[in-house]
Amino acid sequence: MKNTTYLPAAAGLVLGATGALAEAPVLQVLTYDSFVSEWGPGPAVEAAFEAECACDLQFVGAGDGAALLARLQLEGPRTDADIVLGLDTNLTAAARETGLFAPHGVDVDFDLPIAWTDTEFLPFDWGYFAFVGNAGERQATSLRNLANSDISIVIQDPRSSTPGLGLLMWIEAAYGDEAADLWSDLADNIVTVTPGWSEAYGMFLEGEADAVLSYTTSPAYHLIAEEDDSKVAWAFAEGHYMQVEVAGKVAGTAHPELADQFMAFMVSDAFQSVIPTTNWMYPAVTPAAGLPAGFETLIVPEASLLLAPQDAAARREMALDEWRTALSR
Amino acid sequence: MAHSAVPIVPRWPGAAAAALVLLLTFGTLGAVAWRAEWAGGLAAADWAAIRFTVLQAFLSAAISVILAIPVARALARRRFFGRDLLITLLGAPFLLPVIVAVFGLLAVFGRNGVFNGLMEWLGLGPVSIFGLQGVLLANVFFNLPLAIRLILQGWLSIPAERFRLVATLNAPVGRLLEWPMLRSVVPATFLVIFLICLTSFAVALTMGGGPRATTVELAIYQAVRFEFDLGKAALLAGVQFALCVSAAILAMRITSEAPSGRGLDRTVQRWDKARVSVDSLWIIAAALFLLVPLAMVVLRGLPGLMDMPVSIWAAALRSVLVAIGAATLCVAMALALAVRGGFLVAVIGVLPLAASGLVVGTGAFLIVFPYIRPADVALLVTLLVNATLALPFALRAIAPAAAQVREDYGRLGASLGMSGWSWLRLVVLPRMRRPLGFAAGLAAALSMGDLGVVTLFAGQLEETLPLAMYRLMGAYRMETAASAALLLLGLSLALFWICDRWGRGNADF
Q1: What distance in Å separates residue B475's CA from the closest CA in chain A?
Q2: What is the per-residue pLDDT across A247-270, written as a single tens digit (0 to 9) for each?
């Protein structure tokens, strides 16, 4: 463990000191920001794992999923991280290419709508992308229906945001060669394209658009945390693209047993039961107590769409070009 | 150069400041380029991004400066109750994080905003804020305050004696005093705003309505984050620097020196203020445009202000400490560079504006990472970067005053055998109190609102207020985030006001 003695004394004291903890081994988990935040799963997960591991679990937050991958690529083999948590299947192909990951070694029955065969990346939660609008207002019934309507939407930029990339892959998976046409028809529905999820969702809540690209689980936040049932996700006939969030064990970890222990902990009830009301996603393994009340009100898509990681990576560049051309007109 | 007539000032502070700027601009760029595996050059989409970037930056700067001139003139020659407060408040939009300002603007110009309500009442259709007009609107909202302040300072720097003289001669104030002043102030102001808009990322993307409004900075984001093409990122960052340096040289060529001459620092009395109504109109229009969105930020934030979690207050404290550190360092650097002066200093003074935030952060990360755990130095690096990023503004405020002091009192000081510290203490600092206070306030407030490198470095314990606010938004807590935004606005303004107030002392207005 690197300690704070490197710091110029004046700067570090109040500001950046991490404090020298006791001799307990430190397990570092590199993850995205909202996982670490006080509102995310981080604090509860940390408390639960530290109760059983006799270790110090440290989260390091790095932007969103895409920033997380970039961070890992920057750090390379020298990374201090033992676990990387929060990539999705649109990013795992590039993550695999770094050669930094070891097999996850966990054998468990996932509650995923699809079969999971990846031996390197272990899912910890998942959700469906969806357009979220206000209850009682006009709803679109499919991507095509939305594109033909005059319903206004806010989306995220696929070049800077993971949900934005998710929509790109959704349309790619649903329409393939005709994706460009759909984007052309969708162009006049799009009020604006934001850099990240937060801006788009905030704009929707302020009434700038009829709907926003988010998740089928978003209404659950409003229902459970705010007792507000005015938000609904729209079920689309083409099916919904999934986001499966995964974690991987870094091959060069200094604490392989501890890392294995955490990977196993990730699919246990203690971890999984925190997910629904902090990350607002579905747990990868439904805990014994089931899903929290309110989740049964969410729409369940008829079909689940997901491109295999290598397909997603291979088709991204062309899909981006089509998107850019269609929306630049 | 005429430095021989100036008392001896030690070289090393200026050199150290220049070195830090170069490290954080070219150094970080170099670190990124060093790590890059070079693949291809720029694609057609990148060139489109470069064209759009230059276009929106040029238009935004032009509109900001053109609107700022009459507003600054009106403020310079009118005295009214609450003028000081108004000038401080008019500066506020410049200090806001993009996302806060955007939501303030949307509350006024958005679909359900006050403005469209008015349009509807007048029987006119709703106006969409998104597109090039939205980018320009947002950029002018951000930068008009800066333009007003910089040009207002130009007006206030014309000594009272000259107005008196021109009035005695019954000569035109505009041609003899104001036009030469504008010739020396406007190109630099235009340049600063052009460069700010050149590197803007979130404004153009959020308000631009889609990929038509892609800027170079977004292309850099894409290159780093989705393609991990550091070579392309470095190349694009290099393009930004090239644009910056060309613009800087151009601006310097058309800048003419303000006529010299020293007054007795008396309060300006004007004899040519006939058109009260025109001045009032400009002041009211600027105040409405800049203050109504701010009022919306306040209104959105008030309901949840008392329910904010403790962590927000801790983050606020951290941000204030970083801001004070950054402001101190920034002013010290600006002073060290300003007392030396010269072309190189002028170039170093604009470089940070042209730096890509993401490349600076990524480069700093690459430099630091092999030796130190990044989270341990998150706030220190944030402080250094914030001080450097605010340097152009501080220098813009301090450098003209320093040059003036050098020109007016340099020979006197040299003939008295003054040197170093006593020159600084007895002559320079007292005459520069106003720009120093302004610069410190600006640096502190800018640092408060910055959400740049900290995102790449910070863990849980190093969260700053803007980062905490952003994390709240990411966790659906928009209302609490709005309150955090209000707190941020209040703290930024308070820091700015305290420093600026100190600068103005109680000597003049």
Answers
A1: 6
A2: 999 999 999 999 999 999 999 999
Q: Cβ atoms within 10 A of the Cβ of B433, count?
A: 15
ipTM metric: 0.81
Contacts of B35 (CB under 8 A, 6+ apart): A74, B230, B366
Residues A230 and A258 in one domain: no
Tell me the CATH number at A161. 3.40.190.10
Q: How many domains does chain A have?
A: 2
**Whether B373 contacts chain A with CB within 8 A:** yes
Chain-chain contact of A195 with B201 (C-beta, under 8 angstroms):
yes
- Give the number of A-B residue pairs with CB atoms closer than 8 Å: 190
**What pLDDT, on the 0 to 100 scale, is given for residue B399?**
80
What does the pLDDT read at residue A11?
40
In this structure, are A120 and A171 located in the same domain?
Answer: no
DSSP state of B427: I
Would you say residue A184 has pLDDT above 80? yes
**By residue range, what is the domain housing residue A49?**
23-126+243-295
Which residue, among B471, B472, B483, would best test binding to A if mutated, counting the most A CBs under 10 Å from its CB? B471
Helical axes A179-186 vs A309-328, angle rounded to 10° = 40
pLDDT at A7 over 60: no
- Report the C-alpha gap between A211 and A273 in whole angstroms: 29
Give B347-377 pLDDT, tens digit per residue.
788 888 888 878 888 888 888 888 888 878 8
Query: Considering the entire predicted model, what is its pTM?
Result: 0.84
Position B301 pLDDT exceeds 60 = yes
List b or e across A65-83, with b for residues whose CB sees 16 or more CB atoms inside 10 angstroms.
bbbbbbbbbbbeeebbbbb
Distance (Å) of CA B384 to CA A280, B11, B283, B322, B329: 37, 21, 37, 9, 8
Number of domains forming the structure of chain B: 1
**What CATH number corresponds to the domain at position B7?**
1.10.3720.10
